[in-house]
Every structure is written in structure tokens, then in C-alpha cells.
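step 3/5: co-fold with flavin-adenine dinucleotide
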Amino acid sequence: MKERYDVVIIGSGFGGAINACRLAQAGRSVCVLERGKRWGRKDFPRTTGQVARAFWNERDHGLLDYRAFNKIDVIQASGVGGGSLVYFNVHLRTPPEIFENPRWPQGVRREVLDPFYDMAKEMLEAVPLTPPHEMDLPNHTQSFLSAAQGAGRKAELVDICVYTGPEKVNRQGLVQEGCVYCGNCMLGCHVHAKNTLDLNYLPLAEQNGAEVYPLHLVEKIEPLEPVEQQGYRVTFRHFDAERGGAFEAGAVIGHKVIISAGALGSTEVLLRSRDVHRTLTRLSPALGQRFSGNGDFLLAGTFESNREVDPGSGPSITAMVDYSTSRNKIFIQDLGFPDPFLWYLESALPVPNRLKNLKLFFEKYIMRTLGLSHASAFTDGADKLFQGGVTPRWLPYLGMGTDAADGQMQLSDGNIDINWNSRRSKEMFDEMEQALKELSAGIGGKYKTSLLWGWPLKKLLTAHPLGGCTMSDDSQQGVVNEYGEVWNYPNLYVSDGSIIPTALSVNPSATISALSERIAAHLIK
Ligand SMILES: Cc1cc2nc3c(=O)[nH]c(=O)nc-3n(C[C@H](O)[C@H](O)[C@H](O)COP(=O)(O)OP(=O)(O)OC[C@H]3O[C@@H](n4cnc5c(N)ncnc54)[C@H](O)[C@@H]3O)c2cc1C
Ligand code: SF4
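step 4/5: write C-alpha cells
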């Protein structure tokens, strides 16, 4: 690593990768610091042992980073490629009405972002699912379309960043195979069918000279006066996997620094710099505010659907239905989970039928073994061993809507904490649950709310954390301006989900990508 770069970028998810690519293409020297590992396609966790180590901590550097807070849990990713490695591939533009909320800067409107959405869509090759050769739409897609039809609604296939054709060498010279319907999108794609950032923006950045440093966790940012000439020093810890996770402290200087560590990560780096290290004391008082879970409602679903759903097969999300009301934007999508999680759920839920079938199977087996029965092959009952399970007919959903985006992030014992409650968003979640009940009736099943949402926890889980370093037209209402530049700190930028000031009501990666393309274009200009 050199001592100084034109641009130092923290994080390699949608915000980081896009800025790295565009700035390197424009001839800037670029250094990317990423806390997670670089994942080869054969490295993604599949066995139960590997899945057990799939979670982020400073020893294992896993893919998934699950955080539990008082009233909301957050799941995010870690690795070169950020959230794209584990995401459900959905690429959707935010409805234009969302940008009318006065929290958005005047200059950021859907028509302003459309050309940048186009650029991201082209790079990420987002299209509705075309089933691979000799395959049909996955069962969970068909079930969802049928649930919506039964409820008198129309569900449509959404754009997803999944390749389904024959093996190819992509535009960056990397091999991609077509989707094999393994359903493991959340654990990384073994065949590189997902168009993740490490297959497009990041290799293009590296081909243009950008340097990417995995296992580098940024701790603080400090201005070097005068910042217009000198820039900022970024201090990090480098985990040395070969030395059993030992770490070394280091620093690098960027004439410009772009923080793209995600809604929680970017807010944490800035809060630490302001409140612990006291290096960025002029940051806006709005830092940490306007946290939103994007109205995510996860882990709810229809049980005992009238058809086989197989939520472990096919790309995890494929379709969507609009359940918006006069008061709230609400969108519901089908959802799938990797098989290891479904098996875990099967074993955790007591299913009396399965126990009864297990007993019958073993009775038959013992009778055959002792020669007391000469009935047909004992494996006749094997199919019943798997009967009575809950997951084959479980249709999980992802609901998203306009929550109040009124959470507050702060440091507790030096780590990020979220103070949020659902009170001001209750009407929207009530409407969303009503929609989920209608879909459940539409497929002849029973609606079960999320385990977390029920008494006594009354919590939510979000995969789409937003806010904390929000955009605004003045330095009191937000942390950055409409181009991501931090108020009072020239040449310091934030470009990721943390700058979004409201819930989007749809999956956010396309909007984060469009905003990042716009920020990069502004920086180059
Ligand atoms: C299971 C799952 C499914 C999802 N599905 C979808 C979907 O289908 N469609 C969609 O639009 N969105 C989806 N999302 C959300 C999407 O992944 C995020 O909105 C998106 O990745 C956010 O982009 P970002 O640039 O803000 O941050 P990220 O992509 O999260 O990137 C931030 C990066 O910064 C790194 N980092 C954090 N702190 C530091 C630090 N201190 N130093 C160095 N590096 C750091 C992280 O390791 C990470 O790689 C999903 C998320 C999850 C978890
Ligand atoms: S289902 Fe997901 S993880 Fe499996 S091959 Fe298709 S895109 Fe990849």
C-alpha cells in the first residue's frame, strides 16, 4: 500500500465499488479498504460446519454480520463486494413519490437519478428471471404468483441480477455459469450466476489500477490541515489471517476520502471519529439520526399452502406485488432461504407427525431385521420420514414499506447501537400484515407472523438498514449534501445506504448504486 492516494474508499459494497470503478476509470489513484475477506466462488459456506462459521466476527471474518439491538435486528454483509455477495439480487428503482418527501434534497428526484439507474442496471445486468434451459419458474415463484392471483392481485417478476444462460466469459473476463436453482443466494453463489460486484464494478476498477485491500477495518478519519490540499488520514487495523487473526495498525492518506461502509459502518466510523477520537468535531448534530429499516418485515409467511413451495430452490426473490394504500407504500415479495437454514428450522420446530413416522419406520426396520416381517422393502416408509415437515409448504415473504425512518444510532461502549421503535410506523405494519393475510388466504394457507414480531419481543429484522449520515440541503438536517460531501469537511464524502433520508419501500441497492454513480460523476467533474 502506498502512503497517499487521490482517493481512499472505505468499504467495497455498492457505494464503494461503484466509486472505485468510476474514479479509477477517470485516472485517479484509488485505494479500497474492506474489513471482510475476498471470496472465491468455491469458498462460500455450504456444509453445516462452514455455515456455522459464516457469521462475521474478528476471528472468522464470515460473510454475514447479524446484529441484535433493542427493538430491531440488522443483517448485513462483509467481504469484497459487500452486500452483493449475500443479497437476494433484486434491482428495483424507488417509486418517484418517495423523493417528494421534504427530507430529500431538492436536487435529488427520480428523473434526476434515472440516467444513473440506467448505468447501474447495465453494469449489473438486471433482468426478470428467465428459467435456465429445461427448467421452469421455481415453485416459490409460481406459489407467490398464485397467492397473489387468489387474493385478487397481480404479482410481477422483478429485475434480478442473476445470469441463467450457458457458461460464459463475462465483460471483465471472468467465468460465469448459469443459475442452478440451488437457492443459496444468501450464502454466496458457487457458480457465479449472481452478478455480484466482484464480477463487474470491482474487477473493472482493478483493471484501471485501483488497489483493493481486504481484512482492513477502518477505525478513524482525521483531517490534515489545510484539508483542501492535504486531505485526510484514515487509520485501520489489518487482520492477518496467516497469523491467527493477529492485527496490525496502519494508516493511509487520501486527498479525498469516501466512506462507503454501509448504514451502520459509515455512521459508526463517523461517530467514533467525532465522539471518541475527537478528530471530526464539526460533524452535523444530525449524525446517527433518521435510521430506517426500510419498513422490512421478514420471517413471516404462509404455512400449509395448498401447493408445494420449496423455498430452498431457485433465486431467493423473483416477484413482487404492490399493496400500497393511500397512506403508505407497501411492496411484498416472495422469498427463499438456503437449505441449511430450512433444515435448521425443520429440526427446531416440533412436528408430531414426523416423530410418529420415524417410530413407524423403525418398527418396520426392526421387524425386517429380526426376520419377523417379510413385507415389501422397509424403505417403503422412507418418504414418510420427511412428511409432516413445515418448510416444503412454507411461503416466506419479504414485506417493505414506508416506515417513519425515525431511529437513532449512537455509540454504546464504543460500538454502534440503534434506538428505534415501531410506534410511528405501526399503521404501515398493520396494513402490511393485512396484505400478508390476504396472500395467505389466496394460497389456502395459514398466516404466521414473524417470531420476532410476536409477544414478548415485538422486534423486527431488517436486511436494508438506511440512514445515519443522511443527505440534506442544510448542515443541521443532515450530514452530507446531495453529492455526499460531508458538511464542514471538504473532500470527505459518504456514498452508501447511510445517506438515504427516508424508507424507500423497495430493495435499496439500485438506488444506492444510482446515487453512487451520481456522486462519482460529480467527483470526476
Ligand atoms: C441477506 C440480504 C439480502 C438482501 N437482498 C437485497 C436485494 O435483493 N436487493 C437489494 O437491493 N438489497 C438487498 N439487500 C440489501 C443490500 O445488500 C444493501 O442495501 C446494500 O448492500 C448496501 O450497500 P452499501 O454500499 O450501503 O453497503 P454494503 O454493501 O453493506 O457495503 C459496506 C461494506 O463496508 C464494509 N465495512 C463496514 N465497516 C467497515 C470498516 N469500518 N472498515 C472497512 N470496511 C468496512 C463491509 O464489510 C461491507 O463490505 C440484502 C441484504 C442482505 C443482508
Ligand atoms: S439460486 Fe442463487 S446461489 Fe444458487 S445458482 Fe442461482 S443465483 Fe446462484
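step 5/5: annotate
The two ends are 27 Å apart (CA to CA).
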